[in-house]
Design goal:
With 109 residues, this protein is α+β, with helices and mostly antiparallel strands. It contains three helices and four strands, in the order αααββββ.
Length: 109
């Protein structure tokens, strides 16, 4: 029996996870997977933080910009998708090679 891999150890920081996430997204755009690697947390834990960050940014006059996921096989863009997670399959070609959505923080709402 193999044991599940433990989650990565977070790097020591003086800021909260959401503050670190915000600073990272102000610097550059990134996928949830890239953010998880940079911040030392599981990818599935990034999504709830992104959802909360999107709500709190609106109050500050900023917004979380999302470049939609795309099918690498046919080019279908998931423009209408509101979920922050990567889709599993393309509705057009049924392909499973999907480029994940990219996130960044924009100054204006």
């Amino acid at each position: 029996m193999s044991h599940p891999k433990p989650p990565p150890s977070p790097a020591p920081r003086s800021e909260t996870v959401r503050q670190a996430l915000l600073e990272e997204l102000r610097r550059t755009s990134a996928t949830a997977w890239e953010l998880s690697a940079r911040l030392g947390m599981r990818e599935r834990d990034v999504t709830p933080h992104l959802e909360h960050l999107a709500r709190s940014l609106r109050a500050r006059g900023e917004r979380l910009s999302i470049a939609p996921a795309r099918c690498l096989r046919c080019g279908y863009a998931f423009d209408e998708r509101r979920s922050f997670t990567k889709p599993s399959r393309c509705p057009e070609c049924r392909g499973e090679r999907i480029d994940a959505p990219r996130f960044r923080v924009d100054a204006g709402a």
